Amino acid sequence: MIFCAYPRLVFNHEREDILGHHDAPVRCIEYSYATGQVISGSWDRTLKCWDPRGASSQERTLLGTYTQPERVYSLSLVDNRVVVATAGRHVNIYDLRNMSQPEQRRNSSLKYQTRCVRCYPNGTGYSLSSVEGRVAMEFFDLSEAGQSKKYAFKCHRKSEAGMDIVYPVNTIAFHPIYGTFATGGCDGFVNVWDGNNKKRLYQYSKYPTSIAALSFSRDGRLLAVASSYTFEEGDKLHEPDAIFVRSVNEVEVKPKPKAYPIHAT
Q: Helix H segments across 160-207?
């Protein structure tokens, strides 16, 4: 287990050791099964790759430091690719086998601040969420045919007194078996989507406060939901932080012919 700290990384194996340091808060950490590396992203505008396999902290190695255009907000891995989303709507795509420079440099197709990036389990692209209550579906293939498949859609919104209230989409998690995905928003809801057929499959009952993080178990049978106020409305009284682990029924995540449609925008 790896913990984010300020501004260091801690590698836990029934003891506490320091894996390494950043110069500002560590925003995100991922483990690459393809290369055995730990990849960390920080508000110090760097991405760092580490080899955690040494028996002692002296033997654990910083493999490289890669400067980013802005503070790192989120990162995600699939196969040998790592996608880094930063402030300023920048997206850098690297090949872990050659980190000398990004293989692609992009800007988010969403207009406002990025909250989360997650790669598709099949390795063909990635999804982005933002503070504007939208999710974008992107593809690595830069050909005209590849780029024609991308789209964005609205979610985590409600109408009240004739006004459209928009909630940030803080987190995305892909189901490891079916490739469908869940989104969590500051409205306290978790929605499950079929991206291929552009349909909403399911909405879970409202949680006590903002959804800060989501994660499916490796077999897809459990979903961990972190309910934690993310201060989108400033400092106010709120429900205490909590983590809910719920069983996932196939009907909630398996694609089906008829479901609530996603309206691409």
A: none
3-class SS of residue 251: helix
What lies within 8 Å, CB to CB, of 133 at 6+ separation is: 154, 155, 156, 157, 166, 167, 168, 169, 185
Three-state DSSP at 106 gives strand
* Alpha carbon distances (Å) from 15 to 1, 18, 37, 56, 57: 11, 10, 20, 11, 12
Domain boundaries, the chain: 2-261
Tell me the mean pLDDT in the region 19-26: 92
Q: Give the predicted TM-score (pTM) of the model.
A: 0.88
Token pair 């995305």: residue: 172
Closest to 215 in 3D by CA, of 244, 185, 249, 238: 244
- DSSP annotation string for 111-132: SS-EEEEEE-TTSSEEEEEETT
At residue 49, the 3 state secondary structure works out as strand
Q: How many whole angstroms separate alpha carbon 114 and alpha carbon 127? A: 11
- Look at residues 167, 161, 164, 72 and name the one whose alpha carbon lies nearest to residue 129: 167
Q: What is the pLDDT of residues 168-210, one digit of tens each?
A: 999 999 999 999 999 999 999 999 999 988 999 999 999 999 9
Task: Give, as one character, the DSSP assignment of residue 4.
Answer: E
Residues in the chain: 265
Q: How far apart (Å, rounded) are the C-alpha atoms in residues 222 and 209?
A: 20
CATH superfamily, with its number, for domain 2-261: YVTN repeat-like/Quinoprotein amine dehydrogenase (2.130.10.10)
How wide is the angle at C-alpha 72 spanned by C-alphas 91 and 83, nearest 5°? 40
Any idea which residue has 């880094």 for tokens?
A: 84
